[in-house]
Amino acid sequence: MNKLFSNLTCVKLSKVSFKQKILKSINYNNNLILKGISENSGEVGLDFGFFALSGSNTHGAVFTEDAIEKGANLIITDLKGLKIIEEKQLKISTIVFPEPRKIIPELASYFFKKTPSTIVGITGTNGKTSVAHYVRQIWENLGYKSASLGTTGINGIINLQTKHTTPDALKLRYYLNQLKNIGVDRLALEASSHGLVQNRLDGIRMSVGIFTNLSRDHFDYHKNFNSYFEAKSLLFKELVPQNGGAVISTDGLKSQSMLKIAQSRISKILTVGTKKEANLRILSNFPNDRGQKLKFGWKNNEYITDLSLFGDFQSQNVLLAFACITLLEKDLDRNIHDYIKLLSKLKTVPGRMQEVASKKNGAKIFVDFAHTPDALENVLSSVRSHFIGSIHLIIGAGGNRDIGKRSIIGKIASKFSDYVIITDDNPRFENPALIRSQIMKSCPKAIEIADRSEAILTGVNQLKCGDVLIIAGKGHENYQIYGNNQYPFNDAEEASLALESLGEKL
What confidence score (pLDDT) does residue 21 get? Predict the structure, then answer.
């Protein structure tokens, strides 16, 4: 790991005075020196500023005592937070803003000024990670120093795990600054709905914004579909400038609404889809045991390329990435065939329809991050065309997340799979048995195996010649969460261990 990124638990500053333009109108201690700033009380150190922010369940001000014990010398919060601090009768310098979350990006950018000059933001329910990786891979093949940042962490010139799809504003600005320091000038950045509504991306200039699709997810936070859509639309309403570009998938729900938002203020727009009005139109894709052959239309011409990627939904992800490149590369039309050749070089993204093992009888095992109803249906319905045997599925659902989607996942599993095992995902603070039962109710043919290792062993053992096993829900993740405990666990590794224990290791 590059030393610039080592041991980052919070945003550390060189000793800096808080006498900055952001706070010039605020009454504060002129001698205040900050050594760091954090939104997490557990990451606070000596002489740190602590942002006590309103959360979905708890206000951060309730952790002020913890922050003070760890060395905080300043609290930045809102009126609700101030009331909590006063009720606790805590003695500490406090600055109050109506919306303190909006202060963080400006403050962070004051300390961390550098960013890659070209940043592509990708939003949507499914496909963000794949599109970000494909954009980065194309850049790398063109010779650019580039990176992607999202659910799988920072990838490319450096690989680093991150906690959230879109890091908090402080860490994000730190990462951008450090990436620029090591020479990265092109970045593909996943813009999650949480990150957008929580102002984590405020002030970051996006050269191009990409919209993949919209389906049910995060209703535990956004409450309904319209609120979820509004969160995603902020990328095009606020972060992509008028002279920037937008790439919109036009086949799914709310696609036309997102397109209209982009058209209302962004000058360069490309659409991707199967409909005849799409700028890049998917004409056909022929699955095979190595991936698929994609045929698409672009500027009244037809092109064909081989993709070593499984699942017809990958065609859209690839063309969304390609459309982004067409908006950024000035010589693309003159060298179109050279650019299209790059698509055949795209590699599977970790945990996204990733082939992780195969049995001696030829049965294949895939790991996929699909944890939403739409993503799961796309994976199961498209994989059917690649294999002649039965489809086996291992699936669960995360705890303390959208409960309503569990029955839908069960129905999809029942409809599109031949054999289903319901197991634990990340139960968090919910009863694992209850989560499994909520899926099982709508998937009566499934068997229930709580232990995920045992579920994978059973699933692998069942595979016959021509079959395929999809281990869904966790993808690249290398842990399982039960309560406050996080245990090492990786679906791909477990699949290999299962083969070995069955005497099937090739």
Answer: 36
User: How far apart, in whole angstroms, are the C-alpha atoms of residue 377 and residue 424?
Assistant: 19
- Better pLDDT: 369 or 3: 369
Using one digit for the tens of pLDDT, what is the confidence trace for 240-250?
Answer: 999 999 999 99
The two tokens of residue 359 are 């049995």
CB count within 10 Å of CB 470 equals 25
Tokens of 111: 């300390």
Place of tokens 């698409």: 296
Question: Average pLDDT in the 41-58 region?
Answer: 88
286-306 tens-digit pLDDT = 998 889 999 999 999 999 999
**Distance (Å, whole) CA 452 – CA 464:** 21
H/E element, 107: helix 103-111
**DSSP letter assigned to residue 455:** H
Q: Structure tokens of 59?
A: 């206000």
- Measured CA to CA in angstroms, residue 163 lies from 10, 40, 150 at distances of 12, 12, 9
Measured distance CA(357)–CA(354) in Å, rounded: 9
Identify which of 448, 449, 370 has the alpha carbon closest to the alpha carbon of residue 412.
370
Render pLDDT for 457-475 as a digit per residue (tens, 0 to 9). 999 999 999 999 999 999 9
Angstrom distance (rounded) from CA 294 to CA 154? 29
Report d(CA 167, CA 392) in Å as an integer: 35
In the DSSP assignment, the letter for residue 163 is S
Phi and psi torsions of 95, nearest 5°: -115, 130
Among 155, 228, 162, which Cα is nearest to 186's? 155
Measured in degrees and rounded to the nearest 5, phi and psi for residue 128 equal: -60, -50
Instruction: Report pLDDT digits (tens) over 314-354.
Output: 999 999 999 999 999 988 888 999 999 999 999 999 999 99
How far is Cα 322 from Cα 135, in angstroms, rounded to an integer? 7
Task: Report whether 67 contacts 10 (CB < 8 A).
Answer: no
Residue 36's nearest CA partner among 60, 8, 78 is: 8
Residues in the chain: 506
In this prediction, residue 15 carries a pLDDT of 44
Q: What pLDDT is recorded for position 421?
A: 98
Query: How is residue 464 written in tokens?
Result: 């016959």
Q: Which long-range contacts (CB under 8 A, 24 or more apart) does 27-33 make?
A: 28/74, 28/93, 28/95, 29/93, 32/73, 32/74, 32/93
Q: Are 81 and 54 in contact (CB under 8 A)?
A: yes
At residue 223, the pLDDT reads 75
In the predicted model, is pLDDT for residue 17 greater than 90? Answer: no
Tell me how far the alpha carbon of residue 334 is from its chain's centroid: 34
Q: What angle do CA 416, 419, 423 make, to 5 degrees?
A: 100
Distance CA 95, CA 151 (A): 33
pTM exceeds 0.85? yes
Lookup: tokens for 462: 């069942």
Amino acid identity of 19? K
